[in-house]
Design brief:
globular, single chain, Rossmann fold, about 140 residues, alpha/beta
Length: about 140
């Protein structure tokens, strides 16, 4: 059950880094899993960055922009903010203790770690803050 009326899986868009390193690919793999689990809809970050009008508008109108960045550069978050979209949930993979490298053989345990961190970020988001706690991954314990 959702703890907030502001968003549901239907209006939660999931954006991820898909950068040229392991943590970018982990971000994307976790985003796919979250979509498959029904916690939101994976959406095209490149279309937002490319200023595709209809998709930028959809991003701006979504109830929640759930963002998974691979590293501290935070390209996904910055791309969305440039388009006027404020993330409601944001996770940076390297902040989970996963080291950035060029090994593209993803570990299932690390994908699971990112998925759980996103779910936890939704659960731990503060009530009442702009954009906080709105993600469909946020559930009552």
């Amino acid at each position: 059950m959702l703890s907030s009326d502001r968003s549901s899986a239907e209006d939660t868009l999931i954006y991820s880094c898909a950068g040229g390193c392991n943590v970018g690919q982990l971000s994307n793999a976790a985003a796919v899993r979250l979509d498959q689990e029904g916690l939101g809809t994976l959406f095209c970050l490149a279309a937002v960055g490319g200023h595709v009008d209809d998709l930028v508008q959809k991003a701006q109108e979504a109830g929640c922009a759930l963002v998974i960045d691979g590293c501290p550069v935070q390209c996904a978050r910055r791309t969305l903010e440039h388009a006027g979209v404020e993330p409601c949930c944001h996770v940076v993979v390297t902040e989970l203790g996963i080291e950035k490298n060029r090994n593209f053989e993803l570990c299932a345990d690390e994908v699971e770690q990112v998925v759980e961190a996103v779910k936890s970020a939704g659960t731990d988001a503060g009530e009442g803050d702009k954009g906080s706690g709105c993600c469909s991954c946020r559930s009552d314990a």
